[in-house]
Amino acid sequence: MAQLTRVSGSVGLITLQNPPVNALSAAVRQGIVDTVKKAVSDPLVKCVVICGQNGVFCGGADIREFGAPMTGPPLVPMIHAIEATNKPVVAAIEGAALGGGLELALGCHYRIIHSKARVGLPEVTLGLLPAAGGSQRLPRLIGVPAALELITTGRHVSAAEALKLGIVDQVTDDNTVDTTVKFALSVVGRSLESRRISTFPCPPVSDLDAVFDVAMQRVRQSARGAIAPVTCVQAVRAAATLPYTQGMKREQELMATLFTSGQARALQYCFFAQRAVSRWSMPSGARWDTSKPRPISKAAVIGLGTMGRGIAVALAQAGLSVVAVETQEKQLMDAKQAVSGMLERGAKRRGVAPALGLVSYSHNIQAVAEADLVIEAVFEDMDLKKKVFQQLSAVCKPGTLLCTNTSSLDVDHLASQTPSPELVVGMHFFAPAHVMKLLEVVYGPRSSPQAVATAMQLGKKMGKVSVAVGNCRGFVGNRMLKPYMEQAFFLLEEGATPELVDQALEEFGFAMGVFRMSDLSGLDVGWRVRKADGLVDPDATSGRSARIRQGRRYSPLGDLLCEQGRFGQKAGRGWYQYDKPGSRVAKPDPWLHNFLEQYRARHGLGVRHIDHQEVLERCLYALINEGFRILEDGIAAGPEDIDAIYVFGYGWPRYRGGPMFYAGMVGLANVLERLEHFHQVHPDVPYLQPCSLLRRLVASGSPPIQKWREVIRKVHSQL
Ligand SMILES: CCC/C=C/C(=O)SCCNC(=O)CCNC(=O)[C@H](O)C(C)(C)COP(=O)([O-])OP(=O)([O-])OC[C@H]1O[C@@H](n2cnc3c(N)ncnc32)[C@H](O)[C@@H]1OP(=O)([O-])[O-]
Fold first, then answer.
1. Which of 182, 212, 450, 688 is the 20 to 30 A CA-CA neighbour of 364?
2. What is the pTM of this model?
3. E strand segments, 121-196
4. For the domain 298-475, what is the CATH code?
5. Ligand 1, closest atom to CA 130?
6. Which value does ipTM take for this structure?
């Protein structure tokens, strides 16, 4: 809705009212149309100010309405009507003017912004383009290069930058509405001819073709396979080359191709999934809205290797005081230098002062005695972690929350080393910990809801997408990665090459295929785990038995490479070869191809043609199947949790929504049918056996993903 009041005698103040962000729902659009008409026809109103209630101008079109048939007045004529009025209309921007919100403001004759507000056209992040005139007005206002950058990245811009770019006319530190009302009164009577952006020519650019070629190349490289950024470039090109009316026509045509696309649906699902994961729940019934987090002001990090350093930086950047502990003196000095450097570089990027004073360093674990929360980030070794937890229990003040940064170790087992297991949770950070958005908060059967709530809130404070998950081997992300990698190894045995598998996955949208990723993270990591699991058997060198371990098909390929010292990038060779150790450019390796041929011959394996489709189905459906098992086991509360983990932590292409959303897009019955087929061909691969939840969902008519929780609840209630 929108409300019209008359203030300061002759100013028509229109307030958008649609909590929490005054999104432009059908009712709000109707409200704007009605109130603008009323204000324009009221002789007592000399000028109009548009603002939003509760300190937010407008978060854009109401994304919740996108799936349903359009009702209410459309945005484009509404904004045109505002621009065409003969009374000055001024936008008073507080909080944010994003998407349709900024497009509304661009239809106004002037824009005043609060210094803490931001603006932007983030439609591209939702698989769309700014199709309420934004792609046509912004280039006319600020020029093609700047508009291209903002529209194709969807970046939010601070008030100061918005002023510099010319998006707004004035920045204020005072009450934005009061300032804007005064401003509006001051421009009454001035000609509006030069204030209607749609009438501006685009500022000339010397080599327009080159500008668009570079932009197109950039978006194709940075968002491989995503259609919205490419379409955004085309829309801005229309602004630069066509008269406004024709440009608007082109904008609408381009939007029509995006609006109903699968990518737009996936990206909009991701938008809500990212927010839904903060409403966590545990199988015990504990929930986000009934569990109160503890206040944390002082944190500690134990172990300052790569992960510990990143965690210390993330905590300090969130404004917490941090005690960083490393028992080795030399490591401590190196870490201090590295952490300070990271804080300085981060602060420079964000234009703030580095939080160097928030971090103190010690080689004595006693230094953590006063911490409210400790994150242990020592080497991934259960015995070592157990020792640290025992020490922490003796040192920390009562009530201190003890967190372990582990990617797969048993959080409950660690909790049992302490007298207060309810205060123990896992915090699985992803490297580099101060950069990566994902945090898995792992609760054991004895973790208290308050401990989970505190870790989740801390994650939010650090700017992470935090997902609460149950305790099991690999938690959610790494547990699902295992069948995915296993299939990739099997495909090599059956005739594929690392290049073929990686190309299929990279064309699907992953930043890196499974083998390039494995080379980057180091083959020895998995080797160590497999050794500890008793899977690496040096005696079994040939024949079928060599490829069966613990009763199931096993590929020793990764182990054989490690035995040759081929640990990946750091060794200069792994699944690929590199110019030198540490080099990042992966090149196909004839040695590896020869090795695969010999391996297949030794084991009597026939080679067959494997295409991209098979790579995708085998690798992704095995991963998805494990996702369904995770839901069935109650390790993740809903499909959004799994999807957020994969999008924010594992490079799953956001425009494909996450693995569970993707399963829904290709059709659950289709996934089930292909898994049944693959399991028939490979009966010794349990990961390919379709999970009963998947069967159940298909039997229930493959409901939309938003309804899966109902089926999951039924499964749980019958257990
Ligand atoms: C022709 C069409 C052309 C135009 C297209 C567009 O405009 S496309 C749109 C382009 N606009 C954008 O892409 C902007 C998207 N929004 C944002 O970037 C941020 O929400 C924010 C910066 C506005 C506020 O950040 P913050 O950290 O303070 O808050 P928060 O992020 O936690 O959100 C709070 C609640 O508001 C909800 N909600 C938010 N926006 C919308 C919406 N547009 N709609 C509906 N709902 C929306 C959000 O789901 C959440 O709900 P929950 O979970 O509580 O039930």
1. 450
2. 0.95
3. 157-158, 170-172
4. 3.40.50.720
5. 3
6. 0.98
